[in-house]
Amino acid sequence: MDILWSALFAVLLVGYFAFEGANIGLGMLLPVLGRTRDGRDRLVAAMAPFVLAGEVWLVAVAGVLFGVYPRAEGEVLFALYPLVVCLLVSWIVRDAGLWFRRRLDGSAWRAGWDRMICLGSWGLALSWGAALAWLAAGPSAVPAALAGAAALAAALAFHGRSFAAWLLPAGPEPAVSPAADPAADPVTAPAAGTATGAGAGAATGIGAGTVTGTVIRRGTGGGRGARALAVSACVAAAPAAALLAGAAPWLLEHTAPVDTLNVLSLMILPFAPVMVGAQVWVWRTFGPRGAADRSPSFF
Amino acid sequence: MDVLDLARAQFAVTGSLHFLFVVLTLGLAPLVAIMQTLGTLRNDPLLLRMTRFWGQIYVINYALGIVTGLVMEFQFGLSWSGLSHYAGDVFGAPLAIEALVAFFLESTFLGLWIFGWHRLPRGLHLACIWAVVLTAYASAFWIMVANSFLQNPAGAVERGGRLVVEDFGALLTNPMLTMALPHVIGAGLWAGGSVLMGASAYQLFRRTAEREFFTRSLRLGVVVATAGSLLTVGFGYAQFSPVAQFQPDKFSGAALAGVGLGFMIMIGQLLQLVLLFVLLPTIAWLPRWRWAHPLLMAITPLPFLAAMLGWLAREVGRQPWAVYGRLTVADAMSPGLTPAMITMSFAAFAGVLGLLAIVDYLLIAHVVRRGPAAATLGAAPLPSPERPAALSL
Description:
The structure holds two protein chains of two kinds.
Chain A: H1 2-28, H2 30-33, H3 37-68, H4 70-79, H5 81-100, H6 107-137, H7 142-167, H8 188-194, H9 199-220, H10 224-253, H11 258-268, H12 272-285, H13 288-291
Chain B: H1 3-42, H2 45-79, H3 81-115, H4 122-151, E1 156-159, E2 162-165, H5 168-172, H6 175-178, H7 180-205, H8 211-237, H9 240-246, H10 250-253, H11 255-279, H12 293-299, H13 302-316, E3 321-323, E4 327-328, H14 329-332, H15 339-370, H16 389-392
């Protein structure tokens, strides 16, 4: 039972970086990929349906951390106190940008919240990178935390770029399209690669990416964009997967008693197919064909 | 203020903000679902326009519910790791179930509902909002299970200095839960009905062109607020018995708890009297009584104020215990929490969330002011103007 729950925990954390990582990365690159207001509108509209379904993975991670590893929860979050505060504030600012940008008509209003989306996404990527490196290398390793922040930001930006290319193959601004090339960024990819660490972790990340890729391909009829997205999902999830592989024995020691796990299994596992089904439904509905839809977006 | 006071104040501020938005979510979600269901079944364009307009208010409100909720979830680990260390094996379970079974699904289905307009088949799109309602209420249930455990740690025993699950069923039938959950749900419906009343009164007062739209909305608001008030007040008084049994000093120990309770009851009783004996009997004429509309607008915030006072009474009245009779709040605080840490996080959370809460309410007011014609939620794919009602008949 403890093995099953640690596997579920791993799936949720890896899923967070594979799915929500794409939204974070696209948010980071929003001013670069969308140089005009129309371009940013198209990018945000294409990404928007994935945001609500993406950020819930971290809520689920925190829930499992509390329910399955209650003694680890306090230790980990408290050890990372300033980084967790940064992460939460960044998350809030990013979400506010998405929810608020279209609520008033003015150009300055929308441009201001677009900056908040970008700022919040960077905050998320950097605090996550620092937190993962901190957990891997220990609290005294400030250079490692900085390197981790930079590496994860690069990985997520890479993932966000392939996500944008998959969603809008013709680019956000078809007339100009300076950033429509779906090929991998040769500079960021190796940087992200060095951050992946342990091979076992990377394998888990690749597994997650393959699953992601399969879901995407089956939903949308395949294509080069989907394969590139699967690869970048692996890159985005690999650091967390590597850390998990290293931390697994420590986590297992902190597992809640079997009575608690039985309750959680009984109450949660029957809903797992619905959770998976809802996620698949989102990816099948709002893929590239949906992104080209003429509906005015709510975000 | 020392570290403990700051940590408590941070939890009180973020928790109150969260509940302010959650209570309206609980009230509006079922109303929007009912509007869409009836609109779809009867093929009634007015009801479908009501779905979009009130739905837009619901989702703008929901945004702040999410971001304040994120802070709540992580705050346990940041400020209160002593609680998860001592009681996490029991208390963590309902929170984990809430995160996975309720919120995970609620948010995913809400995304499908918001962005699935004109993309999903109508029946499936309708199913999405019902999935959202169901999971929102499941979320309220599990959060109340967790909170009631803090009020009365039923179903757990201490073993080796930590609480462990003995009988999970006892958590679900906790007497501090069974009367409080319908009380909270009633408060949500009351708040939702109140917003329908206040916003409709504003539009009717301004001699809106959408008379029928806001006449129906106002009447629905009065009925729902009255029903909510019956549920809230009934299950409010019903809580005195379990409270007297499990927390006899709840409202006499801490002054603030007693004051919160007193003002909540006063507001609730007065409003309920007005609803039952003035607004409900005159529901047929109320939409035409222009002089009454400013009064309806003025009482809109009162259910929200009462809801916050109620939470204050419930939570402050538990002091000094985090887990009643087992673990004090002082022992629940993270060991090693410094004034600098808690001041920094308090300023960040309260500042950002407070500001966003104000912006959110201004945006809701903006949506109300601009009326149904300007609703962007679920707008049609092509910019062709809507066919006039006369032609569709």
